[in-house]
Every structure is written in structure tokens, then in C-alpha cells.
């Protein structure tokens, strides 16, 4: 089926109106200085004739034109000067003008042919009258007066011979053309002028109206006019036209602002079913070609367009059918279109359909069926329990319970480690333990207490591989995600002392404390390795390295001072005799002498990297907490901007959780000038007059309102300098000495307010 | 573990956007039905609608909260070519617990549908960016934060491509940055994500990058919260979910790298190393919305499959799906009968390894609360 194509042709002036002939193969377009008939071909518009010939006068300045729906050679036009002109295309003369009615006093807005009676023409004018012309007699058959209101639109009912509608300012009249004195029915349809009305081509009960109030309304007029549907558009509506063969669809164009032609489904009044955005100025006329997929339009931009539905824009298609948000607590809200819900239900259950009888075949629902019933479901997935990786409970608890100051570093680390362990954040606990070892003097004891040094992870995995796997497997049924963890443990990293792998654990997958133990020994092994590398002679060192190749050593900056207490040979012996190392290291570490030297390799860079790592992984809390706990031990090694960034980020986060006390503590402890001043910036302390309560603006002792000095002594009535003693009950007070004297005698307030002041006792 | 609750939102058309406020205790929804609803989390843990009003004369595409420091303020944008700023009137709540919102301003500069509206990060003051279907990004500022009815159009950036979404970079230590996504359907039109940076020296927004990795239409874009990261992370919802990192290159490097080093130096524009760290096609076709968690470590996405998928990087920076959320608000007729409780089904869509697909049983009618098995 050849449907033609979307096409246009440009005229010499703006166009006001369009009408098609009976079979919609030709169209007439008209404007102030254009009046032409085109034949609509597959590929182009072909101009058949121009009616603007002969004597050019205002009669040709068209506001409206209609083609007779029965006789293909009769047309009628309305002009700005009030003339109604009929045209006969069969005339042999150059001018086809047939007759001019000049009865209206003002602009005629609309002309309408009777749908079945070829000789009846109706006009509506700004002068407030409608006229029914009989074309045979070339005279007015009847005149209808609409009072003072101007007539915006008139149209015959396609269903009742005698009925026509007329729209005015805010009201719609239904007339019986046999009665000229009074309309049959009238109803208020809009708030402001009603520019257009269109009878439904099929449904006899329905009439659509539209106007300056930007609304398109569909009325059931079978009985008392009843509002069936309202479409709220974005601009004042100039024209509406029902779409043929689609009961619920109506086309509209606007008078201002919006240049597009929108096709609405009245059942879904919020978003156009289709839109045509070709025009560059407002669209003034729409004419369907008896085909729901094809219509013509004219515009102030001087173009005549043919539009095809296949080229329509579908605003609803680019509208997101889902909404999604995560809040700070890790709750997920998901609003999803019921269509998607169903779609995925169908797809999701696809693998079960084979076991069931095949569902009977149905024609897929049409686009407009799918379009009409749009609705969304809202689901809130509230996260429950700390195990959820979206949960932020760990953050809140840590923020509240971490100790950052006021104790020895080792105690702080221990405390914080315990908190992290309790939250099953073993990697963080681990880090705290590690910091303790690195920075606290008697770390050696801690090590021996915490661990029995069963082995470092390398060996544990190598020596009894079942253990690690078994552990992971044991976790499997409960939390299948351990599967991932398992692969991480076996196939994944070589355990190392680098912060990366440890923090990797903090995916939230809980581990047994035992793991954490083994991890910590890992650090010890790192230290040991360093020790040996530092201490061993050049030849021995190579052996050590060979033995330690399968693990990643700590960073390369081994600029610590050489160990003074350790016997070189003993260390190198250990290096050669791997299984014994751990015990010996334990011994070594447990001596305070060594522990004091535990930072003989410079771990600073590693700690700095670790803090960066935590920040990058979204745990700025850890970075800031460590920063504060370590203080000057680490501060100078991290640049100011980064510190500020972390601190401010953490403070922001605390603010989101409304942890104001924690925020304050961090600000206080930040040791960073830009952060410290936050407290001062946003804090204002106002003093108020103790008599009238007005804020003291100028100074602390003079009230502008009472014109007096605040806080005078209630006993001697002089200004109090220095200590001011006052009653919290009545706020009267004064010189301490005076009050003491007063209350040694009396119990009531010296200001005679009658209050039994508290400090009288 | 998630507990799924359906809320009967009672919008008369599709809901296009959902936004939580700063503290996560209020929620706003906007819909094609031209209205916005505000929900408050009650003491009982339930969401209650405390306001519902008509905001526009067209579909409301997006809704977003301002930082609470500026009051209880919402911004909306609509098909009706406007964006609006709303403020809640402080009043003792009525018996119904309803609150009243008033329009403080209507931003009417756009000639086409306004597709996104976002408040700038707090440290930039009260600024608002909008983008529209005709490819214009506009940045407004309220010079007086106490007066929400006065907004000045500060900048208008022409993007050439029709814009569908935008995002502010939340980082406080980097120059102000905007990412704009385009829903232009033509893949040959090039990258659909464009990065703009504000040059303090020129007082002007400059285009610094076009992300060529994404050529399909983009419908949502979001920077991950930056909590002390030195680089930026951008989530993009297109045909696939993309996670892209933008590493600022050192200024000196940037100056020497491009041939016109001098011009770069003059403009002082940053250069970035852009890398795609993840791309997923698990939603059936279009990804409509993405959202980051507060720490910027988990990305949630939702697409045409009607599911929420959560993505997270493991310790090796490999991004994996860690969960699929699917609530069964309605039970479609094709749904399996007799679904009770949580059922495990095989992973139909072939999500990454180790991902399981759990479906909520249809418990509607008995109780609105379903247990979603999650791990």
C-alpha cells in the first residue's frame, strides 16, 4: 500500500487553514495572501490552481476555508473583513468566486458545511452571530445571536441533522437550527475562550472542546453534559481533530509556544501518544486524509505538510519507565512500569513453560493498547541487617564507638580493632592491629598474646589445603557468596603484607576471627622478612629472597637502621630453615628490645598508601580515623589537600547520618586549620536582654528596646562588672556579694518578682 | 537481606524518577501525571505520603532535592519546557501529617522539554543545572540563598546533541565538573557523554572530554560520590551499564602532551585519562536509571527487564553483579502459580558467575512485606 511520504511545500506567506476534498486527494490551503488548491501525489504536492486571482481584496484574506463534503466543486471561505465567500470550481471564468455574503460586521472565524445537506453553510463571527446560508438562494436562512460573546468555532453535528455546536468565551452552545432565538443547551466548558470543538466522528455522545486554558476536554452530551476526559497540555490550544478510526485519539495544535502537533489518547491524558515536530512556527490547521496514519497540516511557517504516523515521534518511548534511588541507609526504591513488571515476569518464567501446556497464541497488543494503561509499582527494598553490602550500619556504629584520642595509641588501636572485629570487618580490625604493631612500642607482647603463630597463610594453605577450602565450603550453604571468597583464597592473591589484599577482604564477606589471626601473622612475616633482608649479609640475603619469592614483600624503601641487637647468623639461619622461622620471629618480636625497633623499616609509605586505598574504596572513615589516631606520625607524609578532602568528606558523611557529636569531635581533632574553623563559621552565639528578651545587637550590656542597661544588680541597681550571680528561675541577680547579703536575710527574689529563688535555701 | 515493601504510590501514570533526600528519610516521586509526591519515613518504618501536588502541565521527568542547608527544597523539570523550584512551607503539621509546598520559581528559558535538573554540590552554593531536548545545558544560580525565587541564568552551554541527563561531579577538591548524556539515537554522532569543566580564570564552562566509549543513547548518568578519591567515577546508563573512571592527568603532563600545549595552558583545562572499568548488558535492552550508594562503591541499575541489579568492584577492581532485586508487586497471569516464599530459580539471564537470581514469592494479598533472599 503506497502511503506516500512525509513531505512539505513552502508557500509565499503564512497559512491559516486547510481543508480536503471529499476523497482527500486534494486540499485547499489559505492565509492572508495565499489561497491555493493542491493535489496530493505520492511524492509531492502539485499545485492545481490559485483562487487568489482577479481583483485582490480583503475578501481573500482567509481565516477559514472548507471544502464541501458532498460536492467536490464547492468551497467556502471566511475572511477577516467579515465576508463569507463561496467558490465554484466548475466556473469557466478565471475567478472561481461564486458569491460573497457581507453580512457579518467583524471577522468570521469559522465556516462549516452541513455534512449531508450540500446547500447549507454555517458561519460564526466575532460579532457574536452565527449565520446559516442557503447556497441555492444565495441568502441567509437564519441568524443566531449568541449574545455579546464572539463566536470562536461552529460545526455541524455529524449525527443529528439539525444540531450544530458553537463555542464562545468559556461556554459551548448546542443549537437546533430550527430555533434561532435560543440555543438548546449551553454548558461552561473552559476557563477562557473555547477556540475549537470537534464532534466525535463515531461516538454520538462525544464532543471535544479546547481553548486558551490549555485543556482539551471530552464531553458526553447525551444527557446533561458530562466531562469524560481532560487533557492538560502545555499551551493554549488552537485546533483539535479526532483521529479517524481510532476512537480515543485526538490531534491538537497550539496557538502559541508549542509548534508541534500532538496526538493524544484521551485515556492517558498526560503524554502525547505521538508528536510531529516538523513545523517551525505554530500549526494553524490539521486535516486527516480519512486515514488514521496520514494527515495534512499548515502553519504560520508558510509550509503545508503531509505527516505519516510511521515518522512520528513517540514522547512516551523516551520517557524512563523506571525510577531508582538508593538512600544513605542502603534502602533501594524502585518504581517500575507495570509493563516492565509483566514483561520480565513472562521472560523470567520462560524456562517453566516447557513443562506446561503451551499458552494459546494471542495477537500481541497493539501499540495504542500498550500505550493507554501506564502505571508504576513502587517497591522499597529496605536493607535489613549488617550483612547487606549496601548497609551502612558499620559506618554509624564505628563512628560512634571508635576512640580516636585520650589513650595510648596501642589502646586506641586495640579498642578500634575490637569494634571492627565485632562488626565482622576483619580487614579493618586487621589494619588497626597492624598499626598497633607498627607504631606502638610494646607491640611484641601484643603479637604473642594475639597469636600462637600457627603459620603464615602461605604455609597454612600449602600444608593443609583442606583447611582453607573446608572453611569456605562450610560457609557455602549459609552464604553462597563465600564461593567467591573461596576462589579468592585459593586461586587469588598470594597473601601479602600489602594493604591491598587485606582491604580486599572488606567486601563484606565475613571471615572467621581465625583468619584474621592468620592474616596478622602475615604482617609479622612481612616484618620478619624485612628484618632478615636488612640484617643478613649480602650472600645470605639472596637465600632469604629466594625463600620469600612467592610473597609480595613490603615496599622497597628499606631505609631503616640496621638491627643492632640481632645476631646476623641467627637470622640467616632462620631464613634457611623456614619451618622454624615463625617461632623464632615470635621470640624475637616478643622481646621489647626488638619491638622498640619495630619501625626499623620505614612503614610510613605503606601506611600512606593504605589510607589512600581505604579512601578510594569508599571507607574514608578509616582514613580519617587512622589519620587522627596516628596524628603527627603520619600527617607530614600526606599532603594537606588530601587530608582536607578526607576530613571534609567524612564530616559530610557524618552530617548525612546526623551524627553531629561525632562531626564535632572530628572537627576538633582534625588538626587542620580549614576544618577546625568549621565550628566557628557556622556557630553564632546571641545574647538577649534579660528584661525584654530582644537580641542584643550592638553590645552586650545595652538593650535598644528597653533603652537601658542589661543585667543591673537587683539589689543596688548598678551595672554588674565581673561575676554576675543570677537565679535560673527568674533570671534576676546581681553582684555576688549583694546577693549573699540579701539571701542571708530573705528567701524571695530581690527584684520583688515574688520568686522563691533557688539559691536562697 | 532486603525486605521488600510495595508502596501504593497511586500516581495516575508512569513514575519517572524517585529521589531520596540528604538524610534518606524523605523521598520524592514524580510522574507523567504532572504531579510530585513527597513521602516521609514514619516512626513505624512505613513511608507516608505527606504531600501530593500538581507541579507542571506536562510529564515531570525528574525530581531532585537540594541540600537541607538551603531548606526543604525540590526541583522538578518537565515536558512542559519548564523547570521549577519548590519549597516546603514550615508549618506545624496538620492532623493528616500533610505539608504544603509552594513554587518559588519557574525557569522558562527552554524552548523544548527540560529533561533533567540537578542541584550543584553544596560547596558550590545554590546552583541548578538543567538540560533540554534541544541540547542546551543551562546553569542557574540563586545569589541569595535565602531567596529561592530569584535565579539568574549564569551559563548556557550548547551541546549540539539532544540532552537527556546530566550529573554534577560531587568532588569538592576538583574544579566544578558536569557530565551530560545524550539520547541521540544516531551512533555515528559520536560519544554520547560529554564532560564540561568550569574554568575559574575564564568564568566559563568548557568542554573537556567526549567519552567516545558510549555511542548508544544515554538515559542516565551519575558521578559516584567522591569520598577522598583522587579520580572520578562515572556511571552511565545506556544500552549497557558502563562504569568509567576519569583520572585527572597532572597539569604539566597535559600541557606537554597535546600538540597545542600552549593553548591548553592558556585555558587551564584539565585533561583526563578515561578508562572504562566495567560494562554490562544484563538488562534486556535499555538501562533507564542508575544510582550510586553513599560511598560510591555500589552501583544500582534498572532497565527494561524491570529488575534492579547491584554492581560492585571486587578487590581486583573487577565489577560484578552482586545482587538482583525483583519485587513481585503484581502477579501476572503468566506467573507460576503456587509460588510460596522465596524461591531460587536458575540464573535465566546468564548474569556473571556467582550471581543468583531470587524471585519474590507472590505474597501479595496476605501481606505487603516480602522477604527477599539476598546475599
Could you provide a short overview of the structure?
The complex is a heterodimer of chains A (761) and B (375). Chain A has 761 residues and is of the alpha+beta class.
Overall geometric form of chain A: elongated
Q: Major sheet of chain A, described briefly?
A: 7 strands, antiparallel
Number of strands of chain A: 34
Oligomerization state of this entry?
Answer: heterodimer
- Total helical elements of chain B: 2
Label the CATH architecture of the domain at 7-314 in chain A.
7 Propeller
Helix content of chain A: 25-40%
Strand tally of chain B is: 28
Radius of gyration of chain A: 45 Å
DSSP helical segment count of chain A: 22
Q: What would you give as the CATH superfamily of the domain at 7-314 in chain A?
A: YVTN repeat-like/Quinoprotein amine dehydrogenase
Based on Cα principal axes, name the global outline of chain B: globular
Q: Ends of chain A: how far apart?
A: 106 Å
Given helix and strand content, the structural type of chain A is: alpha+beta
Rg for CA atoms of chain B: 21 Å
Strand content of chain A: 25-35%
Strand order of the largest sheet of chain B: 2-3-4-5
Note the main sheet of chain B: 4 strands, antiparallel
| CATH fold-level topology of the domain at 7-314 in chain A | Methylamine Dehydrogenase, Chain H
Mean pLDDT of chain B: 81
Would you write up a description of this structure?
The complex is a heterodimer of chains A (761) and B (375). Chain A has 761 residues and is an alpha+beta fold. Among the domains of chain A are: 7-314, Methylamine Dehydrogenase, Chain H (7 Propeller); 445-600, no CATH class; 702-760, 2-Layer Sandwich (Herpes Virus-1). In chain A, the strands form nine sheets. Chain A has a seven-stranded antiparallel β-sheet with strand order 14-15-16-17-18-19-20, with no helix packed on it. Chain A has a four-stranded antiparallel β-sheet with strand order 1-27-26-25, with no helix packed on it. Chain A has a four-stranded antiparallel β-sheet with strand order 2-3-4-5, with no helix packed on it. With 375 residues, chain B is mainly β. The longest helix of chain B has 7 residues, at 261-267. Chain B starts with a strand and ends with a strand. The model of chain B is unreliable at 252-266 and 329-375 (pLDDT under 50). Chains A and B meet through strand 28, strand 29, helix 1, strand 30 and helix 9 of A and strand 1, strand 2, strand 3, strand 22 and strand 23 of B. Chain A: InterPro entries: WD40/YVTN_repeat-like_dom_sf, WD40_repeat_CS, WD40_repeat_dom_sf, WD40_rpt, WDR24. Chain A: Residues 453-463, 486-532 have a biased composition (Polar residues). Chain A: WD repeats lie at residues 101-143, 144-185, 187-222. Chain A: Belongs to the WD repeat WDR24 family.
Amino acid at each position: 500500500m503506497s502511503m506516500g511520504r512525509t513531505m512539505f511545500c513552502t508557500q509565499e506567506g503564512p497559512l491559516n487553514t486547510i481543508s480536503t476534498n471529499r476523497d482527500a486527494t486534494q486540499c485547499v490551503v489559505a492565509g492572508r495572501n495565499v489561497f491555493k488548491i493542491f493535489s496530493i501525489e505520492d511524492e509531492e504536492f502539485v499545485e492545481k490552481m490559485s483562487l487568489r486571482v482577479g481583483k485582490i481584496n480583503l475578501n481573500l484574506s482567509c481565516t477559514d476555508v472548507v471544502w464541501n463534503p458532498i460536492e467536490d466543486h464547492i468551497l467556502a471561505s471566511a475572511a477577516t473583513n467579515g465576508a463569507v465567500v463561496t467558490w465554484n470550481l466548475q466556473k469557466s471564468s478565471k475567478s472561481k468566486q461564486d458569491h460573497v455574503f457581507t453580512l457579518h460586521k467583524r471577522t468570521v472565524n469559522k465556516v462549516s458545511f452541513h455534512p449531508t445537506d450540500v446547500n447549507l453553510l454555517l458561519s460564526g463571527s466575532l460579532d457574536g452571530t452565527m449565520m446559516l446560508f442557503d447556497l441555492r438562494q444565495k441568502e441567509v436562512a437564519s441568524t443566531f445571536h449568541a449574545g455579546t460573546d464572539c463566536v470562536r468555532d461552529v460545526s455541524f453535528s455529524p449525527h443529528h441533522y439539525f444540531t450544530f455546536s458553537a463555542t464562545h468565551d468559556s461556554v459551548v452552545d448546542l443549537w437546533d437550527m430550527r430555533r434561532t432565538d435560543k440555543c438548546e443547551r449551553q454548558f461552561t466548558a473552559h476557563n477562557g475562550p473555547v477556540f475549537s470543538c470537534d464532534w466525535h466522528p463515531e461516538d454520538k455522545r462525544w464532543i471535544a472542546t479546547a481553548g486558551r486554558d490549555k485543556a482539551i476536554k471530552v464531553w458526553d452530551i447525551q444527557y446533561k453534559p458530562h466531562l469524560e476526559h481532560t487533557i492538560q497540555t502545555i499551551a493554549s490550544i488552537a485546533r483539535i481533530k479526532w483521529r479517524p478510526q481510532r476512537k480515543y485519539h485526538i490531534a491538537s495544535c497550539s496557538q502559541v509556544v508549542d509548534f508541534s502537533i500532538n496526538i493524544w489518547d484521551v485515556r492517558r491524558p498526560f503524554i502525547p501518544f505521538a508528536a510531529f515536530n516538523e513545523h517551525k512556527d505554530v500549526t494553524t490547521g490539521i486535516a486527516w486524509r480519512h486515514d488514521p496514519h496520514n494527515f495534512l497540516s499548515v502553519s504560520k511557517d508558510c509550509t503545508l505538510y503531509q505527516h505519516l504516523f510511521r515518522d512520528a515521534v513517540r514522547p512516551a518511548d523516551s520517557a524512563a519507565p523506571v525510577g531508582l534511588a538508593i538512600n544513605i541507609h542502603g534502602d533501594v526504591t524502585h518504581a517500575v512500569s507495570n509493563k516492565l513488571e509483566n514483561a520480565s515476569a513472562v521472560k523470567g518464567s520462560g524456562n517453566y513453560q516447557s513443562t506446561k501446556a503451551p499458552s494459546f497464541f494471542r495477537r500481541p497488543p497493539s501499540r495504542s493498547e500498550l500505550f493507554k494503561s501506564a502505571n508504576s509499582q513502587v517497591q522499597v527494598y529496605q536493607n535489613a541487617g549488617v550483612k547487606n553490602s549496601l548497609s551502612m550500619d558499620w559506618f554509624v556504629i564505628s563512628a560512634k564507638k571508635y576512640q580516636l584520642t585520650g589513650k595510648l595509641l596501642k589502646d586506641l588501636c586495640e579498642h578500634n580493632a575490637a569494634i571492627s572485629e565485632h562488626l565482622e570487618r576483619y580487614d579493618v580490625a586487621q589494619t588497626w592491629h597492624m598499626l598497633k604493631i607498627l607504631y606502638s612500642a610494646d607491640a611484641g607482647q601484643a603479637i604473642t598474646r594475639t597469636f600462637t603463630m600457627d603459620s603464615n597463610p602461605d604455609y597454612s594453605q600449602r600444608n593443609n589445603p583442606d583447611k582453607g577450602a573446608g572453611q569456605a565450603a562450610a560457609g557455602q550453604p549459609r552464604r553462597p557468596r563465600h564461593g567467591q571468597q573461596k576462589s579468592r583464597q585459593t586461586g587469588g592473591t598470594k597473601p601479602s603484607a600489602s594493604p591491598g589484599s587485606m582491604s580486599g577482604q572488606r567486601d563484606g564477606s565475613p571471615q572467621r576471627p581465625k583468619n584474621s589471626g592468620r592474616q596478622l601473622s602475615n604482617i609479622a612475616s612481612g616484618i620478619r622478612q624485612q628484618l632478615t633482608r636488612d640484617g643478613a649479609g649480602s650472600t645470605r640475603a639472596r637465600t632469604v629472597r629466594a625463600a620469600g619469592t612467592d610473597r609480595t614483600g613490603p615496599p622497597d624503601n628499606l631505609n631503616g637502621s640496621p638491627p643492632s641487637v640481632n645476631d646476623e647468623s641467627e637470622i640467616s639461619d632462620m631464613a634457611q630453615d623456614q619451618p622454624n622461622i615463625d617461632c623464632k620471629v615470635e621470640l624475637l618480636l616478643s622481646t621489647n628490645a626488638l619491638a622498640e625497633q619495630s619501625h626499623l623499616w620505614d612503614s610510613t609509605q605503606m601506611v600512606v598508601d593504605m589510607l589512600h586505598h581505604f579512601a578510594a574504596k569508599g571507607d574514608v572513615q578509616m582514613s580519617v580515623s587512622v589519620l587522627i589516631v596516628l596524628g603527627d606520625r603520619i600527617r607530614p607524609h600526606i599532603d594537606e589537600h588530601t587530608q582536607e578532602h578526607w576530613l571534609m568528606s567524612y564530616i559530610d558523611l557524618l552530617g548525612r547520618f546526623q551524627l553531629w557529636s561525632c562531626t564535632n569531635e572530628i572537627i576538633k581533632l582534625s588538626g587542620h586549620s580549614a576544618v577546625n574553623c568549621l565550628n566557628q563559621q557556622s556557630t553564632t552565639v546571641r545574647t538577649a536582654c534579660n528584661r525584654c528578651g530582644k537580641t542584643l545587637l550592638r553590645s552586650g550590656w545595652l538593650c535598644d528596646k528597653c533603652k537601658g542597661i542589661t543585667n543591673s544588680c537587683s539589689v543596688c541597681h548598678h551595672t554588674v562588672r565581673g561575676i554576675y550571680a543570677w537565679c535560673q528561675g527568674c533570671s534576676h541577680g546581681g553582684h555576688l556579694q549583694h546577693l549573699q547579703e540579701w539571701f542571708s536575710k530573705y528567701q524571695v527574689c530581690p527584684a520583688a518578682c515574688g520568686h522563691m529563688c533557688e539559691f536562697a535555701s | 537481606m532486603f525486605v521488600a515493601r510495595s508502596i501504593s504510590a497511586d500516581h495516575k501514570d508512569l513514575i519517572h524518577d524517585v529521589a531520596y533526600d540528604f538524610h534518606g528519610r524523605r523521598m520524592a516521586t514524580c510522574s507523567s501525571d504532572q504531579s510530585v509526591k513527597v513521602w516521609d519515613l514514619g516512626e513505624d518504618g512505613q513511608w507516608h505520603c505527606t504531600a501530593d501536588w500538581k507541579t507542571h502541565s506536562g510529564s515531570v521527568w525528574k525530581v531532585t532535592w537540594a541540600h537541607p542547608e538551603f531548606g526543604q527544597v525540590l526541583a522538578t523539570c518537565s515536558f512542559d519546557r519548564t523547570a521549577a523550584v519548590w519549597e516546603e512551607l514550615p508549618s506545624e503539621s496538620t492532623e493528616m501529617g500533610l505539608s504544603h509546598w509552594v513554587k518559588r520559581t519557574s525557569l522558562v528559558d527552554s524552548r523544548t522539554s527540560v529533561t533533567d535538573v540537578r542541584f550543584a554540590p553544596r560547596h558550590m552554593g545554590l546552583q541548578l543545572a538543567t538540560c533540554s531536548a534541544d541540547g542546551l545545558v543551562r546553569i542557574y544560580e540563586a545569589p541569595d540563598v535565602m531567596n529561592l525565587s530569584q535565579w539568574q541564568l549564569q551559563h548556557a552551554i550548547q551541546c549540539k546533541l539532544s540532552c537527556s541527563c546530566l550529573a554534577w561531579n560531587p568532588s569538592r577538591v576538583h574544579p566544578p565538573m558536569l557530565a551530560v548524556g545524550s539520547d541521540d539515537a544516531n551512533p555515528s554522532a559520536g560519544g554520547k557523554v560529554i564532560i564540561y569543566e568550569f574554568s575559574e580564570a575564564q568564568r566559563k564552562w568548557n568542554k573537556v572530554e567526549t567519552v567516545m566509549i558510549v555511542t548508544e543513547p544515554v538515559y542516565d548518568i551519575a558521578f559516584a560520590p567522591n569520598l577522598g578519591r583522587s579520580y572520578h567515577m562515572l556511571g552511565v546508563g545506556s544500552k549497557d551499564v558502563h562504569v568509567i573512571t576519569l583520572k585527572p592527568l597532572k597539569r604539566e603532563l597535559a600541557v606537554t602532551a597535546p600538540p597545542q600545549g600552549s593553548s591548553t595552558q592558556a585555558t587551564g583545562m584539565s585533561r583526563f585519562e578515561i578508562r572504562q572499568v566495567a560494562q554490562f548488558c544484563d538488562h534486556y535492552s535499555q538501562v533507564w536509571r542508575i544510582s550510586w550508594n553513599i560511598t560510591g562503591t555500589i552501583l544500582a541499575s534498572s532497565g527494561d527487564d524491570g529488575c534492579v541489579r547491584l554492581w560492585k568492584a571486587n578487590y581486583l577492581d573487577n565489577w560484578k553483579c552482586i545482587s538482583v532485586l525483583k519485587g513481585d508487586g503484581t502477579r501476572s497471569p503468566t506467573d507460576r502459580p503456587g509460588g510460596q516464599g522465596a524461591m531460587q530459580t536458575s540464573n535465566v539471564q546468564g548474569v556473571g558467575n556467582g550471581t543468583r537470581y531470587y524471585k519474590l514469592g507472590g505474597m501479595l494479598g496476605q501481606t505487603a512485606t516480602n522477604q527477599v533472599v539476598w546475599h
